[in-house]
Amino acid sequence: MKISQTCNSNLIANLNKYVHDLHANLYPEHFKKYNFEDNKTFFQKIIDKEEFTFLLLEDDDEPLGYAFIEFKAYPGTTFKKAYKSVYVHQISISENQRKKGYGSKLMDEITNIAKANGINRIELDYWFNNEIAKSFYKKRDFVKYREFVYKDI
Fold first, then answer.
1. pLDDT reported for residue 128
2. Which domain holds residue 46?
3. Residue 47 CA to chain centroid, in angstroms?
4. For the chain, which residues score pLDDT lower than 50?
5. Who contacts 16 (Cβ-Cβ below 8 Å, separation ≥6)?
6. What is the DSSP string of 77-137?
């Protein structure tokens, strides 16, 4: 198993299908159906930006998943202290490769990247009905510290 950084937007757009389909199935009112070309265009626009990093997970040279992370610096305000974090936008693992420890390996790599950059916080969010994500992050000691709620009118 190997984890490396990638700038291959075609590969990321292909691997994105797994997490995108999950979201579209759970929340069809919010997510469009997966479209490779649209996703590729999105990733092409951001993949070279300094604040974003894409980690590719391969086993026997076969791409199985990726993580999409962002380095964030929150300025201090009158109310809050300044801090930095590594924000996990997405982790996507091929459907037939889940529950084999690959997501954990990506999270370990994200932790190592944060530490190497002097950052002591990893942040993320997930959709409430995504029980897979909820269980995965709970097992890795992520703590809920804020809730986002809405009301349709």
1. 86
2. 2-139
3. 14
4. none
5. 34, 39, 43, 66, 90, 92
6. -SSS--EEEEEEEEEEE-GGGTTSSHHHHHHHHHHHHHHHTT---EEE---TT-HHHHHHH
Q: Is residue 144 part of a domain?
A: no
Q: How many domains does the chain have?
A: 1
Q: How far is CA 37 from CA 2, 14, 21, 42, in A?
A: 27, 10, 15, 9
In eight-state DSSP terms, residue 49 is S
- Would you say residue 107 lies in a domain? yes
What pLDDT does 146 receive? 81
Asked if residue 94 is part of any domain, the answer here is: yes
CATH number at residue 34: 3.40.630.30
Query: What is each CA distance from 131 to 22, 94, 128, 138, 143, in whole angstroms?
Result: 11, 17, 7, 10, 15
Q: What is the pLDDT of residue 114?
A: 97
pLDDT at 124: 94
- Name residue, tokens 């937007």: 9
Whether residue 120 lies inside any domain: the answer is yes
On whether the CB atoms of residues 109 and 3 are closer than 8 A, the answer is: yes
pLDDT score at 71? 98
Q: How far is C-alpha 57 from the chain's CA centre? A: 13
